[in-house]
Amino acid sequence: MTANLRKEERSLLYYISAYLAVGVITLYLGEPELNRVYQLSLGGGIKLPFWWFVIILSIGTMLGFWLISVYWRLAGFRCDPFLMPITAGLTALGLIFLFRLRPQYAERQFAWLLIGLLALVLITTLMRELDWLADYKYIYVAAGALLLVLPIFFGQEQYGARSWLNLGILQIQPSEFVKILLVLFLASFLAENRRVLATGSDQILGISIPGIREYGPLVVMWGISLLILVFQKDLGTALIYFCTFLAMVYAATARMLYVLIGLVLFFLGGTAAYHIFDHVRSRVDIWLNPWPFLEGKGYQIIQSLFALGSGGIFGSGLGQGMPNLIPAVHTDFIFSAIVEELGLLGGCAILVLYMCFIFRGLMIALAARNDFAALTATGLTALMGLQTFIIIAGVIKLLPMTGVTLPFISYGGSSLVANFVLLGMLLNISHEVNGGNET
Amino acid sequence: MEMKHNIKKLGYFLLCIFVLLILYLSYLVLQQGEELATHPQNRRMAAREAGIIRGTIFDRKGVVLAETKWLGERGKRVYLTENHVSPFAHVVGYVSEKYGSAGLEASFSKELLGLTDADALENLLDKIFNRTPRGHDLVLTLDASLQRTAWQALNGRRGAVVALDPKTGAVLAMVSSPAFDSNAIDQAGVWSRLNRDEENAPLLNRSTQGAYPPGSAFKIVTGSGILARQTARPADTIQCPGYVVVDGNRIADNRAHGKVDFIKALALSCNTYFAREGLKLGWDGLVHTFNQFGLNQSPALGIPVRPGTLAVKERRNRSQLAESSFGQGDTLISPLHMALACSAIANNGVIMKPFLVKEVCKPDGKAVRVTESSIWLTATSPEVAALVKEGMIAAVNWGTASPAAIRGVDVAGKTGTAETKTDRQPNSLPHAWFVGFAPANDPKVVVAVVVEKSGSGSRVAAPIAREVMAAALFRR
């Protein structure tokens, strides 16, 4: 069985490789004169022609994914065969656009990708059995809170958010990893208490309400993380935490009441934040009408809209647009660059890929053997889906812009590694579903 | 397990929000894409333009109005000018790196640069063979010599002239004065000077955006309404004592006209007749007629057009109605709209869709797009149009419009003298108006003329119209 799964996975990876190759060739045909000498910044002064650099990194990426698939076959790992090729496709696309937009970042991204792939191998080797994770839920709270507090004291501010830790050569964004801890905590807590939360132990005004013991820790955890994030000014991450929280509570209890209370709280909190915090107010004002701020704080979103509108249905073609007019195009706004050059169709194709990821993730959750595994898979998948939705809705001005990365595509080391950890845990659950280590 | 059920529902929710993303993205790209792509602040267009030879703009006979001359590495746009002023400045417009673009240069940018969807293959081939891409040419309906005649007739006075072919809708001349030098837009100080000059407003296209009270020229519209609604028969007469009293307000006429029927009222421009008949027509009838003649619409010409307006609803009382019936009160209309209304009278009640661009051509002259003339509106019936025409012929033969008469040609015309006196400017001269067409039995050209604050329509505007009509008829 594992042989068949892995064979399917590898055959999908070949398509992704072909896709990456076509991307690289297109870029080369567009600008062959770019072939100046390129000096590696991480490689100790090694110099090589630019296109060699591109080809080496591309082959390295696909080889990495392929080797993992081979390794899984040998190690008898029986995970879902679609998730990794989807991820590989998104990563390949991100790499192509980094080559095109900021080659020097492609190198760093590749280094992070190797770390991410290593994390994937370690997790799928050492943590195949996930259930023991359910026992340490308060450790996640402590670790998560610590990780979130650290940048407030030792952190660096980038792009207006104070959420980076500087570790010499590496910069880490702890909130990316705390997301996963949040899901693990919620999954174990909800798995344990969900029956009480769903039916309630006390009654107020005829509505059954669970006791403070049951929902207290939830509210505290959620409140602490939001407060800290507001002080870090990282609105996007706060929004993702909050939505993931609501999604998991709903999945565990099926009570719309909690979701409604959550939305009311969110609305009140949002209104308060709008009046208290300048950076929140300006984000909302820009969203409502960016045009008066064309030369100032609305510049970025308007450049993003120009890029989206200039692409048309088929796009300008890879390398033929001018997405570099958008500030921070390689991180938060990479989707606009993709739509400008690959068109509406390219943009929709990416959305469909993410939808496939969500579909496979929830299928794993539906087949999971116990509540903890099901809730973990649901939470991780919802996290991925909501983050994608929030950033894309931001760059197309459907929602106010909140700076988060587009999973697997945007430049951003912590985010990439954290997403591979997320992928690894989903795959472990699906390994369990497909029979696990026995037989 | 009921949790599975919840997870499925969550899945549907996530699916829905992603579908929402796809829908909104499609809306953004398909509905707003064009506007965003060609937004003046979007630097993509300018960057692409730098490597493209912009197409040439010709008049209907092949006179070059705008062309790009290649000077070394850069193209320079050169416009036809006369003594450092361009009579075509408002219609053709300009392209400037600093100030964006205007006029047909702006609205036909895609064609002039060859960037329409149909050009994609050609552009790809250009890229492969490393050729400098060249945009399409425009052939306008304007006649350069007629335009020059109108420009010289205005002789620097503030005003506008519009000439149309009533049978096709082709705009033959469109002059707004004062104009500016389209070649000098980028020169130091010019732009701010043009924008500062509020009195002359040289950047304003008076022919399509000017908001003038039309005065008695509007009687051709009111007259059509009266006849169409049959609130009066053409032969019905009234007694004109030289004034009319409406709700206690005495509205003076230019003189006492005595016994007046429809034809005589048009010929002698009797305000009393139109005030009384306008009151019978009512606001409903007047607004309906106004809309029937397309005065409230902006035809898609490729340049900005200000739709005409009547008094706002709150101000629509009886004395406002009486004054609006002869083109005073709060009525404001552009010269283009008056020319279109007049073309309905010339063309048996039908207004052809006006257009400025006759053809879009490839550099070798092969047309990619030809504008077909089509009916824009049916303003009134042929019978009504014939009666109004009879009144306009009478106005030229023995009435107020006689300075527009051309020997050997039947001319139909109507003057307007629109009062501009206000409490602050008690000595302000009236706007001089003329609308008309010739030959009356087989109209070849419709003309509308306005000269701001210059005197009576018959003394100032009619001679200009006469000159333009004669040039259009005899200098073919």
Question: Could you describe the 3D structure shown?
Answer:
- Chain A: It is a multi-pass membrane protein.
- Chain A is mainly alpha-helical and 439 residues long.
- Chain A has helices spanning 2-30, 50-75, 83-101, 103-126, 137-154, 174-199, 212-232, 235-253, 256-276, 278-288, 299-311, 334-367, 371-395, 413-433, and strands spanning 37-39, 47-49, 155-158, 161-167, 170-172, 202-204, 207-209.
- Chain A has one domain (2-433).
- Chain A is built from 14 helices and 7 strands.
- A 3-stranded antiparallel beta sheet of chain A has the order 3-4-5. A two-stranded antiparallel ribbon of chain A has the order 1-2. Chain A has a two-stranded antiparallel sheet with strand order 6-7.
- Chain A is globular.
- The termini of chain A are close together.
- The model of chain A has no long low-confidence stretch (mean pLDDT 86).
- Chain B has a domain at 210-356 and 373-474: Beta-lactamase (3-Layer(aba) Sandwich), CATH 3.40.710.
- In chain B, 38% of the residues lie in helices and 19% in strands.
- Chain B has helices at 2-31, 33-37, 43-49, 89-92, 103-107, 109-112, 120-128, 144-154, 190-196, 206-209, 219-228, 262-268, 271-292, 318-325, 335-346, 382-398, 457-474; strands at 57-58, 64-71, 74-79, 94-96, 100-102, 137-140, 159-164, 171-177, 238-240, 243-246, 249-252, 258-260, 350-352, 357-361, 367-370, 375-378, 412-418, 431-438, 445-451.
User: What's the end-to-end separation of chain A, in Å?
Assistant: 11 Å
Q: In CATH terms, what is the fold-level topology of the domain at 210-356 and 373-474 in chain B?
A: Beta-lactamase
From the spread of the alpha carbons, the general shape of chain B counts as: globular
Strand content of chain B: 15-25%
Question: Can you list the strand order of the major beta sheet of chain B?
Answer: 3-2-1-6-14-15
Q: Please, what is the CATH homologous superfamily of the domain at 210-356 and 373-474 in chain B?
A: DD-peptidase/beta-lactamase superfamily
Our estimate of the beta-strand percent of chain A is: 5-15%
Q: Order of strands side by side in the largest beta sheet of chain A?
A: 3-4-5
**Largest Cβ-defined interface:** A-B, 47 and 35 residues
Q: How confident is the prediction overall: mean pLDDT of chain A? A: 86
CATH architecture of the domain at 210-356 and 373-474 in chain B: 3-Layer(aba) Sandwich
Question: How many structural domains are formed by the residues of chain A?
Answer: 1
Class computed from helices, strands and strand pairing of chain B = alpha+beta
Low-confidence stretches of chain B: none
